[in-house]
Design a protein that fits this description.
membrane, 419 residues, MFS transporter, transport, mainly alpha, single chain, Growth Hormone, Chain: A
Length: 419
């Protein structure tokens, strides 16, 4: 480059070919918010079934272990999607990934609404997981594309909050609609289909362009990763995000059973409300801490998850509903801060043409334990009782959260902070 700042066209062309082309730098701020709506709409579906499992258990008949297996097929679909969606999104664009994902989400709604056996529930959860895997990679990257380089911090905040707010809104809607309107296992999915249609319209009009032809080679289906040099940032994000999302996954899968044991109630509004306040805490805490240093956010997330598991152990041994709710709130805060910290690190260090894959890698690291540990806790609870199963789970996750905090403390120089 010369002193005047010019550069020969041939020298600059390879960088242009690998960069996602987008008019996002000039997009109005309201488009950044609207770009996050498809993430919210799909995540409403991700947990909408949570309060309804007690109805399906009554009508179809299956154990807590089977319930956690149904939940785990969501994780299977999500992880399978993440092996593909991040790479495809970075190479072909955000819309070619988001539109089929929204189509699968609509199909999942139809299957949920007509489910009459465990197999149908498994297929619906599988489709939901695939759709969620697409939006946490391509959808969150699309928010960053629309925001542009000057609004990366806002993009990370909105993408993360869109995820957790939708995840909390789904069970609340399902609980209220199933208790107050006819066809309790149908109505919420009709409403969700309407939300997904609006998300399709948003994606169709979203101001992002397809990437230009890339000279980069590599497999289309692979375990997602990050460019060389970004591994420490990914590790830090996973160290805190994984325990946090595993804690909220436990509350979603076995929270209704815990409430039934503690309150002797199967109220779908109560279980849906508990999930909602958990994710409301995850949303609110991100707005509260957004201006803090990233390292501080990650440490606070690890502490919140640790306290959540301590409260969970206390709740199941004292049969205390307020302490159980406190555990859920702290779990939400732990996931929210771990997610915000991880996404912020990736947004600030990973180039745009690898960002969707990096987001996918963060979520793979989080959702693997979020799928395995609650399923193990469900089957253990069937064998030895819910109190013992929850205690073993909480003790294991508490240890992982503490380790995550230690990793962040030990990596002081690996957490880049904004100027």
């Amino acid at each position: 480059m010369s002193e005047s700042g010019t550069m020969p066209a041939k020298a600059v062309q390879p960088r242009i070919d690998e960069r996602v082309q987008s008019p996002a730098a000039v997009a109005p701020t309201w488009w950044v918010w609207l770009a996050a709506w498809p993430v919210t709409a799909v995540f409403v579906l991700s947990n909408a079934a949570t309060p309804l499992y007690v109805l399906w258990q009554r009508d179809i008949g299956f154990s807590k272990g089977t319930l956690t297996v149904i939940f785990a097929f969501y994780i299977v679909g999500l992880l399978g999607s993440l092996l593909v969606s991040g790479v495809v999104s970075d190479r072909l664009g955000r819309k070619p990934v988001l539109l089929p994902a929204l189509g699968l989400a609509l199909a999942a709604c139809v299957i949920f609404a007509t489910a009459g056996n465990v197999a149908a529930l498994i297929v619906a959860r599988l489709f939901t997981g695939i759709a969620v895997g697409a939006v946490v990679s391509a959808g969150m990257a699309a928010v960053t594309d629309v925001a542009g380089s000057e609004r990366k911090r806002l993009a990370a905040l909105l993408a993360s909050c869109a995820m957790v707010f939708g995840a909390g809104l789904g069970p609340l809607l399902a609980g209220i609609l199933s208790e107050t309107l006819p066809a309790p296992t149908v109505t919420v999915f009709v409403v969700e289909m309407a939300l997904l249609v609006t998300a399709v319209l948003a994606v169709l009009r979203m101001p992002v362009r397809r990437p230009q032809a890339s000279t980069r080679r590599g497999a289309w289906v692979r375990v997602p990763g990050v460019p060389r040099g970004n591994g420490p940032q990914l590790t830090l994000g996973i160290a805190v995000f994984a325990p946090g999302i595993t804690a909220t996954s436990f509350v979603l899968s076995l929270g209704p059973s815990l409430l039934a044991g503690l309150l002797d109630t199967t109220s779908r509004i109560v279980s849906g409300a508990m999930a909602f306040v958990m994710f409301l805490a995850a949303t609110g805490v991100q707005f509260a801490v957004q201006k803090l240093r990233r390292r501080t956010i990650l440490l606070a997330g690890a502490v919140a998850t640790t306290l959540s598991m301590t409260a969970l152990i206390t709740a199941v041994h004292t049969s205390s509903v307020p302490v159980l709710i406190a555990a859920a709130l702290l779990a939400g805060a732990g996931q929210g801060m771990g997610q915000l910290g991880g996404l912020s690190l990736l947004n600030s260090t990973v180039p745009p043409h690898r960002l969707a894959e990096a987001n996918a890698a963060l979520n793979v690291g989080g959702y693997v334990p979020a799928g395995l540990l609650p399923v193990s806790a469900g089957y253990l609870s069937d064998a030895v009782g819910l109190t013992t199963g929850a205690t073993v789970f909480a003790t294991t996750l508490l240890s992982l959260a503490v380790i995550g905090g230690i990793v962040v403390l030990a990596a002081r120089r690996r957490v880049p902070e904004p100027a």
